[in-house]
Amino acid sequence: MSTKKKNSLFEILMRLVVVVVIYTVRVFMFAWFRPKVEWTGNTVKSAHLKTPSVIIANHTSMLDPIMMLAVFFYNHSIVVAKDQVEDPHFSWALTRAKCVIPCDRFNMDTEWALLAKRELEKGNSVIIFPEGKCRYDGLLNEFKTGFAFLARSTGAPVLSVGLDGIYKFGHRTHVVVAEPERIERVKGIPSSKHLAERSEYFRQKVWNLKQRALGVAKVSTLPVSAETPEEVVE
Predict the structure, then answer these.
(1) Strands 158-163 and 174-177
(2) Which residues are registered as beta bridge partners of 38?
(3) What residues form DSSP beta bridges with 56?
(4) Which residues of 127-139 are buried (b: 16+ CB within 10 A; e: fewer)?
(5) What's the whole-model pTM score?
(6) Are 156 and 52 in contact (CB under 8 A)?
(7) Of 151, 127, 128, 139, which Cα lies nearest the Cα of 214?
(8) Minimal CB count within 10 Å: which of 2, 60, 135, 184?
(9) Could you give the 3-state DSSP secondary structure of residue 50?
(10) CA 54 to chain centre
(11) Please, what is the angle between helix 192-214 and helix 146-154, to 10°?
(12) Among 135, 152, 138, 137, which residue's Cα sits nearest to residue 199?
């Protein structure tokens, strides 16, 4: 009995520590990187989203998830790679953070979608990085179709975000947020072709937002995912 009480008290204390860490990190992100958020749409002008949304962004740095959580701080959840959640360096915090949805990126995994659906039903937006991993050469990886399936099956709008991916003192990290869009919700199971087409559409959209965040005057064309070369890792 005493062991259970001890463990329960320990868990309560650890969860409080995680909450303190989350708030501290958010203050640090705003103080150190001073994110400049640009709202380009007409219906969304702040991080206080009136409608639970599927929020997607490019993935250039390991700090991207922290920045997204700092900006979209209210009523949110985030999909995190299961292998990172289980990593001993991060598991103590990630397993106790209520906003984390683990996803197995190396095997067929549908449980994360069920958890994400429940979060949307509770009024929480879900942050997803469709590339599934960072890319450092300036291009975008293929967008996995999970976010499109989630948005289509729930009717939640997709909120596309472009991050400049630059995190250094003296530079204001630029975040560009587009007008939310819905993927038509119809009966039946969506075809893989349809989901792939919608994923590519949003990939191109995020690409343009990222270029805007970087301040690129003339945006170059991003090859479709099938024609985008693999990143060369040196």
Answers:
(1) antiparallel
(2) 176
(3) 128, 160
(4) bbbbbbebbeeeb
(5) 0.92
(6) yes
(7) 139
(8) 2
(9) coil
(10) 8
(11) 110
(12) 152
